[in-house]
Design brief:
Blueprint lengths: L3 E4 L2 E3 L5 E7 L8 E7 L6 E6 L5 E3 L7 E5 L5 E6 L8 E9 L2 E4 L3 E5 L2
Parallel strand pairs: 2-11
Antiparallel strand pairs: 1-3, 3-8, 4-5, 4-9, 5-6, 7-8, 9-10, 9-11
Length: about 120
């Protein structure tokens, strides 16, 4: 089973950029769609973006133009570049790996955007 570990979170001011990383435990992660979700206080977890094994990315409408998802050549690390951060981006961000027979979550990492 793939295991995921997120890094790169923190507390930042609005407009600042932040990049989250998620490392998968082994190369089988190349067979998964790797993505990011987030859960703000008092709200349900929501999908942000994912990148398929083919490399094709897809985004939720609310982050288009601000967030970019990418993965390394080995396909075991996925990144989320977040630009122009807003206070409403404050949430716990979760890495996710999916394929037809498996759905794996990271432990989550906190991002706080304060003014």
């Amino acid at each position: 089973q793939v295991q995921l570990v997120e890094s790169g979170g923190g507390s930042v001011q609005p407009v600042v950029s932040l990049r989250l990383s998620c490392s998968a435990s082994h190369t089988l992660a190349s067979l998964y769609a790797l993505g990011w979700y987030r859960q703000a206080p008092g709200k349900e977890r929501e999908w942000i973006a994912h990148i398929r094994p083919s490399g094709h990315p897809e985004y939720a409408d609310f982050v288009k133009g601000r967030f970019t998802i990418s993965r390394d050549n080995a396909k075991t690390t996925v990144y989320l570049q977040m630009n122009s951060l807003k206070s409403e981006d404050t949430a716990v961000y979760y890495c996710n790996a999916q394929r037809s027979d498996s759905n794996v979550w990271g432990q989550g990492i906190q991002v706080v955007v304060y003014s």
